[in-house]
Design brief:
Shape: globular
Number of helices: 10
Radius of gyration: 18 Å
Order of helices and strands: HEHEHHHEHEHEEHEHEH
Largest sheet: 8 strands, parallel
CATH class: Alpha Beta
Strand content: 5-15%
Helix content: 40-55%
CATH architecture: 3-Layer(aba) Sandwich
């Protein structure tokens, strides 16, 4: 059964990465000029990023992967308080604040945090100014960062910064489709009183964060939920909210910690179920001609290559659906 699922998803663990045959590529931004360096034994799977980039290059994305710099810190004020930004930049967070974020203090990590937001901003600008329908970043989805603090491996909220940037540049309605296993609590809090942003989070209810914020729509899932139940709920709600809100831009937080093998997700999707999730999202957005920025989100298997393959599946599914919706 597992081998059949892997073959159907294009991710069978062989020496050669298996990509779908018919693909239409789109621009994606990499932050690997600023590698995420962590101490040995840290639970965050930092090696997934270069592994993911290599997998996508092998699958045909090479000419479409671009390097980003670091964001102008003033632009972080789209979503964060000046006091918090200055505390991060000056390495003056308290030990408790640093513990909540979960990463060590240092210039290397700061550069990576700034590059991650810049990558999402570059992907957003690609849609706003170049008319692309799909773009992405091989990082980001840092949805636990609030306006005045970070937590849960999230320092700055890239989606919130870039959603506000889009609202300031001719976009009238933005939707965040957050399908990470953990609620996008920071994003929900930042946009709690912003009617131009619809936040949709479908997550494990009995999981971090213990205290949930109120998104525009939250779907809290029971622990261990498997493909059939998960996909039924997604299919009931996503088309409905897209047609109701009619967003002009969607940010897709595509966390792969929904997989049964994940250490921290507490959900039970198979790789095939993950592929079906992503295919349904991209089909609904492309059919409605709604542009989308893809961010990574979580994924915490001990095998970093397995996490990278799952993220790669999301991008290849997007490229496959993009091909299907290419103009005749």
């Amino acid at each position: 059964m597992e081998g059949d699922i892997l073959r159907r998803s294009g991710l069978e663990h062989t020496s050669t990465f298996q990509a779908p045959h018919a693909l239409r590529f789109f621009p994606v931004w990499s932050c690997e000029n600023y590698p995420l360096e962590l101490p040995e034994g840290h639970p965050f799977p930092n090696r997934k990023y270069p592994l993911l980039e290599n997998l996508l290059k092998e699958s045909g994305f090479s000419e479409h992967i671009r390097r980003c710099g670091t964001i102008d810190p003033h632009l972080l004020e789209h979503a964060h308080t000046r006091a918090y930004i200055e505390s991060v930049l000056s390495f003056s967070l308290s030990p408790e604040e640093t513990r909540r974020v979960g990463f060590p203090v240092g210039q290397s990590y700061l550069n990576r945090a700034l590059a991650s937001v810049e990558g999402t901003l570059c992907a957003t600008k690609e849609i706003l100014f170049n008319g692309s329908r799909l773009s992405g970043v091989l990082a980001g989805g840092t949805h636990h960062a609030f306006a005045d603090h970070g937590e849960g491996y999230c320092t700055f909220n890239d989606v919130a910064v870039c959603a506000r940037y889009a609202l300031n540049h001719s976009v009238n309605r933005v939707m965040v489709v957050d399908l990470d296993a953990h609620q996008g609590n920071g994003t929900a809090a930042i946009f709690a009183h912003e009617p131009r942003v619809f936040t949709f989070s479908m997550h494990a209810e009995e999981n971090y964060p213990r205290q949930k914020e109120r998104s525009t729509l939250d779907i809290g899932l029971p622990s261990g939920v498997e493909d059939k139940h998960y996909l039924r709920l997604l299919k009931e709600h996503l088309p409905m909210i897209l047609d109701y809100f009619q967003p002009e831009l969607v940010f897709f937080q595509s966390g792969v910690d929904v997989l049964a093998a994940d250490r921290f997700g507490r959900l039970g999707l198979s790789l095939y179920g993950l592929q079906q999730r992503d295919s349904f999202v991209f089909e609904n957005l492309l059919a409605r001609k709604i542009p989308c920025v893809i961010t990574l989100g979580g994924g915490y298997q001990k095998d970093h290559s397995a996490v990278a393959r799952a993220h790669a599946q999301t991008y290849l599914t997007a490229a496959q659906k993009f091909h299907e919706h290419a103009p005749a």
